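Extended Data, panel c. Modelled sequence:
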Amino acid sequence: MKGFIEGEHRSQTTLFPERLDEYIAEDNAVRVIDVFVDKLDLQELGFTGAEPSVTGRPGYHPATMLKIYVYGYLNRMQSTRRLERETHRDVELIWLTGRLMPDFKTIAGFRCDNKNAIRRVCTEFVGVCRELELFSATLIVIDGSEFKVVNSRDKNFTRNSVKRRLRKTQANIDRYLAKLDAVDREEPEIREVTATELKQKIASME
């Protein structure tokens, strides 16, 4: 297409970055999720599977699963099938999980087994991000809090106002988790199209 900016030819050999870390900029906010979860004591928080089983097949580490949920919480992904798809194509999630791609049933099972612990972590994460002034626009949308734009007595928090804000944050997290449950129940089982079938459909379309 002469006269237009052209992309690279798809069959052309390219040299991608050798390290996965090079795909994520140093100032990418997803790095905050990574550090935050890695610093948590998951066993103390009550996450199941924090200690590997002596027998049986190895499972996913709770930290990996939790990173997927915190990322989904921030990006309002209200479906475990959607979370599964994003682990295959979202570069930030691929970086966050180290290219691990658990299926939606595993993701949903983790939520069912650790609902209270996930709730505590999300509440703590919102608090940390507010304190560090990270993700302000995103967090306001998620937890529904209203902030004064001028210095006023409302910014001088009392114990009761902190409790009210904490209850509001927890209520919104509960609604988010309930929405995940509802979406998973309502979402129809969709059979994935195989590569062969996809090629046949493209040929038919052409």
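The chain is about 55% helix and 0% strand. This feature is highlighted in the accompanying rendering.
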